[in-house]
Amino acid sequence: MINSKYVLTLILLGLLSCKQPKPQSVNKDIFLIGKWENCQELFLQGDGRSIPMSRNACPFIIFDKNYMGYVKMGDATITSSFNWSAGNDKLIIRQSKNAGRPFFGLGVFKLLYKNNQVIKQVVMFDTVRKVKYILER
Asked: Which of 16, 53, 67, 80 supports an S-S bond with 100, CB 3.0-4.6 Å?
């Protein structure tokens, strides 16, 4: 007869030797989905300084789950629309057909997320036009 302590030891060793799954890394880019306010925009100078752009009103930038995006001024109608995709802290924006006047420059933006617990601020760098857009919830 097999000793129950021996069987229990074999079961425990078998369970302990199983590989633990690696924790999944979270794709932070899904946190773009939703409504953001753009009240800060900075023009980056060659000497490292940045010049703030003044605005009369702060537009809302909406990133939908279907990879469409919209720019709205207050509760007014949509002033611009775009297609977007994101990954590896980069955002790609393409102007939609009949989308109105482009708000952002088109192309690839570097993304910087502020506050890793609950993302409340995203900084978009337009490397071509040298503009930094600061989006906040």
From this structure: 80
In 25-106, the DSSP E strands lie at 34-44, 50-52, 59-63, 68-73, 78-87, 90-100
Query: Could you give the CA distance from residue 111 to residue 133 in angstroms, rounded to a whole number?
Result: 10
Contacts of 51 (CB under 8 A, 6+ apart): 42, 43, 45
**Is the Cβ–Cβ distance between 40 and 134 less than 8 Å?**
yes
First to last CA, the chain: 67
Domain positions in the chain are 26-136
Alpha-carbon gap, residue 15 to 10, rounded angstroms: 9
Q: Dump pLDDT digits (tens) for 15-65.
A: 556 555 544 445 666 788 999 988 888 888 878 788 888 777 888 999 999
User: What pTM was estimated for this model as a whole?
Assistant: 0.68
The CATH number of domain 26-136, selected from 2.40.128.280, 3.10.120.10, 2.102.10.10, 3.40.50.1240: 2.40.128.280
